[in-house]
Amino acid sequence: MLNDPLFIVVALAALAVLAILMIGILSFAKGGDFNKKHANRIMRYRIAAQALAVALILLFVALRRMGG
């Protein structure tokens, strides 16, 4: 699987979601000015990245079922 470029893209997308989520959680835990200014924007980025990751996972599964 590690030789499959689409698998690598899916893994990177999942890691991007994790990174954005961790930034959001840490800024929420710390609080302060940064959290007040950027909390909603960070979570919107997470939702967009998560939607992309799910779409890529579905594409990966569909292509593997078709034998691609």
TrEMBL record:
In its keyword annotation, does this UniProt entry include Signal? no
Pinpoint the HIG1 domain residues: 1-68
Pfam families per record: HIG_1_N
Does the entry feature the keyword DNA-binding, yes or no?
no
Swiss-Prot/TrEMBL keywords: Membrane, Transmembrane, Transmembrane helix
Which residue ranges run through the membrane?
Answer: 6-26, 47-66
Family annotation (InterPro entries) = Hypoxia_induced_domain
The name on file for this protein is HIG1 domain-containing protein
Q: Which organism is it from?
A: Rhodovulum iodosum
